[in-house]
Design brief:
This protein is α+β, with helices and mostly antiparallel strands. The protein has two domains: 4-81 and 204-218, Glutaredoxin (3-Layer(aba) Sandwich), CATH 3.40.30.10; 87-202, Glutathione S-transferase Yfyf (Class Pi), Chain A, domain 2 (Up-down Bundle), CATH 1.20.1050.10. The protein has helices spanning 13-24, 44-47, 66-76, 87-122, 129-150, 163-173, 180-184, 189-199, 202-205, 209-218; strands at residues 4-8, 30-33, 55-58, 61-64. A four-stranded mixed β-sheet has the order 2-1-3-4. Helix 1 (13-24) runs parallel beside helix 3, helix 4 (87-122) packs antiparallel against helix 5 and helix 4 (87-122) packs parallel to helix 6. The longest helix is centred in the middle third of the chain and has 36 residues, at 87-122. The protein is globular. The two termini are 21 Å apart.
Length: 219
């Protein structure tokens, strides 16, 4: 199998989802780090014309958009399968992945995670408390709906791990150390248990911000 190269910024939850999926597949990969802020310029803009993170290269084939990357990996690396065979479970997986993109990230993690983590850690700036407060109603709605969809199951779409879990876990883990986390999970304890279960997996342990930052330095 030819090399998989992931172009990402350490700390990106989308980049982490792709790398963690490669780890779940037991497949070697190479992290090609993108410096914070450099994703809007060359050479990354040639990989991803919209200037987002990450991008994936495999045997000369370049791909962007996290959902497309995860589905590609599950097709080209079919074992272990991360897409349910049952069509309803697969539809639920697709639904949760879209919730992750359009509601959990957009307007929630893109605001709260950015303000609480990125601004102070990478930009040396204080968080915008008004922006966070404005995002909280949507965050409560997203957490409530993810909790409902998870229910008492081990994973979102099945009793087995799927691509939906691989996408959502890095997004939620980004929020764990924010003061909003205990507020958002006060009425959604199943999400806390689920995330603890996900973080115990080797794939999540191997792809923490700190671990990927070490890999980036060695690249």
């Amino acid at each position: 199998m030819s090399e998989f190269i992931v172009y990402s910024i350490p700390g990106s939850p989308f980049g982490r989802a792709v790398i963690a999926t490669l780890v779940e597949k037991g497949t070697p990969y190479r992290l090609s780090p993108v410096a914070p802020g450099a994703h809007k310029s060359e050479p990354h803009i040639s990989r991803h014309p919209f200037g987002r993170i990450p991008a994936l290269e495999h045997d000369g084939f370049m791909l962007y958009e996290t959902q497309a990357m995860l589905r590609y990996l599950d097709r080209v690396l079919p074992t272990p399968a991360l897409t349910p065979a049952d069509v309803k479970s697969a539809a639920r997986m697709d639904q949760v992945m879209n919730i992750c993109d359009w509601y959990l990230f957009q307007g929630v993690n893109h605001v709260i995670g950015f303000q609480r983590v990125i601004r102070p850690r990478l930009m040396g700036m204080a968080p915008d408390e008004a922006a966070i407060a404005e995002a909280m109603p949507k965050a409560h709605l997203v957490f409530k709906e993810l909790s409902r969809l998870l229910g008492s199951k081990s994973y979102f779409a099945d009793e087995q791990l799927t691509l939906a879990d691989m996408m959502v876990a890095p997004q939620l883990d980004f929020l764990v150390e924010t003061p909003e986390w205990p507020i958002l999970t006060a009425e959604t304890p199943n999400l806390v248990s689920w995330l603890d279960r996900m973080k115990a997996r080797a794939s999540l342990k191997a792809t923490t911000w700190e671990r990927l930052a070490e890999l980036a330095k060695a690249a």
